[in-house]
Each structure stands twice: as C-alpha cells, then as structure tokens.
Amino acid sequence: MNTPTTHIDTASRQLTLMDLLDARENRVRHQKELLNAYPGAVLVSMTLNIPGPVKDSLRYRKALEAGIHRLKAMLAGRCDSECSCTTILHEEFRPLATGPEAYLVVQGEPLDIKKAAISVEEGSALGRLFDLDVLIPGENFPQSISRSRLGAAPRRCLLCEEDAKACARSHAHTMDQLLEKVNEILSDAGL
Questions:
Q1: How far is CA 46 from the centre of its chain?
Q2: Which residues, in sequence order, are bridge partners of residue 135?
Q3: pLDDT in tens, 125-158
Q4: Which H/E stretch holds residue 106?
Q5: 7 — pLDDT class (breaks 50, 70, 90)
Q6: Do 156 and 167 form a contact (C-beta atoms < 8 A)?
Q7: How crowded is residue 131: how many other Cβ atoms within 10 Å of its Cβ?
C-alpha cells in the first residue's frame, strides 16, 4: 500500500540579524566574483522584499523563479524595441535560508537592462516583491544603477503607496499587516 507523502517546508526558519548581515556580505562577494568572471557584462542580482525574520519558503522560491522568467522575457523583448539586444551569459538560482537569490549575467547596455528590471518590478503586484539590482564593476564593490538615474520614482510601500523606505524607517505598518499583504500577493499570483 502506498502512503501519501506530505512535503514539509523545512526551509522556513527565523533568522537573526547576524544571519542577514552575513548573507548580504556573501551576496556582495558573489556579485564581485560574477562580474570578474564576465568582464564587460552587467549583473542582475535578484532577491525578494519580504519583511520579518522568515525569508525562505517554497512560495518565496517559486515567486523568485517567476520573477526570473519575467525578467528573461523582458530582456528577450528588448531586441524587438528601440533598445539594444541583450544576451544572457550566465544564470544562477540559489535557494538560501536567508532568502532565495538569483543572478543573471547579461551582455547589454546597463541602462536598458535597468529599464527592463524596473518594468518587471512595476509590471504586476507580484513584481512589487522583487528587488532587482543592476550592477556594473565599481572600484572596490559592484556599482548599482539606481532607479533615479532613469528618472524612475522610488519604490512604493505595499500598503499605502508612500515611499517604501520612509515607511520602513518610520515603522508605519506592523509586520503582520505587511506579511498579510505579501501572502495576498502570492495567493493572487497562484503561489
């Protein structure tokens, strides 16, 4: 007799501040490695904006995978527009306890790639959860192409549409309110 198996999401665990700081340091180190391995290329580093101490789950991983597919489709579509073509040289997905990370090394114009990234972030409710950093080599650390460089508005809060960083600094919303909105977005996206 076959017994049904139940998948338990063991990836979810509460993280400490030190876990998150170590993850950020490791991410920057990996970004530098990728930029050094592909001279002249642009790096897109993708994570999720998930509040709270739990940063990884199967739903979060599926959300990031959906974001990767959207970005790749957007980059492929650049060849059909007035923007320059892009070629993906390297793709990587890392399911980490500190939150899933994805990396695309792209040959193309950095500003065009940033436009595509902004389109993915703003193109849907699910896109609001994506954090796509477009990076080029810097003197000591990878240099990020900012939204403001393209005249794009700062990221908006999930709940009130104010500047997301200002809401985070002022603790304008509770963790429960933010997580409820994240779960709603994921459910609406079928995740």
A1: 3
A2: 43, 144
A3: 999 999 999 999 877 778 899 898 888 888 889 8
A4: strand 101-107
A5: very low
A6: no
A7: 16
Distances (CA, A) of 136 to 42, 49, 117, 119, 182: 5, 22, 14, 19, 30
Alpha helices for 38-174 (secondary structure H): 58-77, 110-122, 164-170
Q: How many residues does the chain have?
A: 191
CB 143 within 8 A of CB 35: no
HSE-up of 104 (CA within 13 Å, CB side)?
29
Contact 98, 57 (CB under 8 A): no
Closest CA to 159 of 178, 174, 175: 178
- Separation of alpha carbons 30 and 27, rounded Å: 5
Q: How far is CA 9 from CA 6, 58, 144, 182, in A?
A: 10, 7, 33, 18
The span from the CA of 109 to the CA of 145, in Å, is 11
E strand or H helix at 92: strand 87-94
Q: What is the pTM of this model?
A: 0.84
Helices 58-77 and 110-122 meet at what angle, rounded to 10? 130
Q: In what order do the strands lie in the sheet with 42-48?
A: 87-94, 101-107, 42-48, 130-136, 143-144
